[in-house]
Amino acid sequence: MAQLLGGGAPMRGRAGMELGVRPFRFREAAAFWGVAEDPELALRLHALVGGTPAYREMCGGAEPEGLADFDR
């Protein structure tokens, strides 16, 4: 994505702002998903989605109920 706005790219100079969005770190992701009290589930979830908040919408917007729900 960064290459779209850089150097001689056609979009160079047309963007009003370049906003870098970083993924959540482990603890931030656990709190976002509502699984901070379950470290094993938080670890599995972070390993799968890598701290990307957009995946929540892709999975229906709900956090897993527990490890059995996550594995399903």
What can you see in these coordinates?
It is a single chain. The chain is mainly α and 72 residues long. It has a domain at 23-72. The protein is 46% helix and 0% strand. The protein has helices at 2-5, 26-33, 39-49, 54-58, 67-71.
Question: Quick summary of this structure?
Answer:
With 72 residues, the chain is mostly helical. It contains 5 helices and no strands.
Radius of gyration: 17 Å
**Structure annotation, total helices:** 5
Given the helix and strand composition, which structural class is it?
A: mainly alpha
Q: What's the helical proportion of residues? A: 40-55%
Global morphology: elongated
Low-confidence stretches: none
Q: List the helices and strands in order.
A: HHHHH
Total number of beta strands: 0
Report the biggest beta sheet as strand number plus sense, adding barrel if it closes.
none
Beta-strand content bin: under 5%
Distance from first to last alpha carbon: 33 Å
Mean pLDDT score: 77
